[in-house]
Amino acid sequence: MKKHLGFWIAHFNVLVVCLVLLGAFSIQLIEHEIPCPLCILQRLAMMLCALGSTYVILQSRAGVLSLNDFAAGYGMSILGAVCGAAISTRQILIHIVPPDPGYGDPVLGLHLYTWALVVFMVVLIDSGLNLMFARELVSESPLEFNWPSKAIVGLMGAVILANTISIFCQEGLHWILPDDPTRYELFYDLGLFS
């Protein structure tokens, strides 16, 4: 098991980011908090972070995971985390001056964009550690791309699809999202609501 630790860490990384995205998605649907454009960009950056680890998992389908594949995957995660951290920081700075209440309701005392910054920092640390210990984490022995791998990759695909549909419903037939969205524009464009 230790020989394949890097392979299983990639699974854990994808699962955690998917759970964070599903949490944000559930707040959107259950509490009717429609994400602003910066929130959507943060979600896209999180998906890029998870796609780095997904790349590591998918490269193992051939049975081995090379050091180059491992580095490329975590490099992708680092790029996603840096972009996402910049976007999160921008949104935090927009709402930092009192009496601005922030965008959306806080979760455990912090707004979702602040939690997003925490997630991006954790991804940066995790990816950096994975790259530092890549030689120890990657083995040349065959890996099994079995049902847990398929389930994690499938979950990632479902999260991407759900967010794509949500963004399309939110934006409708318009090129630009409003800064403070209050409705799903597609339903109004199609005349389902007046």
TrEMBL record:
<protein>
    <submittedName>
        <fullName>Disulfide bond formation protein B</fullName>
    </submittedName>
</protein>
<dbReference type="GO" id="GO:0015035">
    <property type="term" value="F:protein-disulfide reductase activity"/>
</dbReference>
<dbReference type="GO" id="GO:0006457">
    <property type="term" value="P:protein folding"/>
</dbReference>
<feature type="transmembrane region" description="Helical">
    <location>
        <begin position="40"/>
        <end position="58"/>
    </location>
</feature>
<keyword id="KW-1133">Transmembrane helix</keyword>
<feature type="transmembrane region" description="Helical">
    <location>
        <begin position="112"/>
        <end position="133"/>
    </location>
</feature>
<feature type="transmembrane region" description="Helical">
    <location>
        <begin position="7"/>
        <end position="28"/>
    </location>
</feature>
<feature type="transmembrane region" description="Helical">
    <location>
        <begin position="153"/>
        <end position="177"/>
    </location>
</feature>
<dbReference type="InterPro" id="IPR003752">
    <property type="entry name" value="DiS_bond_form_DsbB/BdbC"/>
</dbReference>
<dbReference type="GO" id="GO:0016020">
    <property type="term" value="C:membrane"/>
</dbReference>
<keyword id="KW-0472">Membrane</keyword>
<dbReference type="InterPro" id="IPR023380">
    <property type="entry name" value="DsbB-like_sf"/>
</dbReference>
<keyword id="KW-0812">Transmembrane</keyword>
<dbReference type="Pfam" id="PF02600">
    <property type="entry name" value="DsbB"/>
</dbReference>
<feature type="transmembrane region" description="Helical">
    <location>
        <begin position="70"/>
        <end position="92"/>
    </location>
</feature>
